[in-house]
Specification:
Shape: globular
CATH architecture: Up-down Bundle
Number of domains: 1
Strand content: under 5%
CATH topology: YP_001051499.1 fold like
Number of helices: 8
CATH superfamily: YP_001051499.1 domain like
Helix content: over 70%
Number of strands: 0
């Protein structure tokens, strides 16, 4: 299977080492966080999942060192209902984007803990897939192109500017998804 992540980005992740990988996945997870948090807030029984998601995204920004408990967090995340197989599949927009946000965090945690560029590329691929889907469903959207730009920016090493851009992009994505939901 091919990847949506641009070849230059994937190569930079392979060449850049652990800190480059960790900053890249932190930014990807930050941009997807509003989808998980915004679409699952207030759902009974999700409080601990929301807390784990928030804490994990926050801790991913400590790109200078791998998360010591990344494997434990992945194990906990894999217990989320959003990552459990369901016979009928995911049939609604909110469920789709929450699943993709959880999957993004899974790959981000794996990559952060190991520095593995392949896990980072998988993380980026999930985000690009989500944005491509949104572009197809939101008239005039250019979220995929914006995500590609942000993934390239992630390699700059400017964590502060990247965090600001990622937070802003994440909010825009949540607005786009919420605009698609039935009222």
């Amino acid at each position: 299977m091919g990847t949506l992540v641009e070849g230059a980005v994937a190569q930079a992740l392979r060449d850049g080492g652990g800190e480059v990988v960790r900053l890249y996945v932190a930014a990807c997870a930050e941009r997807m966080a509003p989808l998980f948090l915004g679409l699952r807030a207030g759902v009974p029984g999700q409080e601990a999942h929301l807390d784990l998601y928030v804490e994990s995204v926050r801790d991913l920004w400590y790109a200078d060192r791998p998360l010591a408990d990344a494997a434990e967090r992945v194990h906990l995340l894999e217990q989320f209902p959003e990552l459990q197989p369901v016979e009928e599949g995911i049939t609604d927009a909110a469920g789709t984007y929450v699943f993709l946000a959880a999957l993004c965090l899974r790959y981000a945690l794996l990559a952060h803990g190991s520095g593995n560029a392949d896990d980072a590329v998988s993380c980026g691929h999930v985000v690009l897939t989500a944005m491509g889907m949104l572009d197809q469903n939101v008239p005039g959207a250019s979220l995929l192109a914006d995500e590609q730009r942000l993934q390239s920016l992630s390699l700059s090493g400017d964590a502060a500017g990247l965090w600001d851009a990622s937070v802003t992009a994440g909010r825009e994505r949540l607005r786009a998804v919420v605009g698609r939901l039935p009222r």
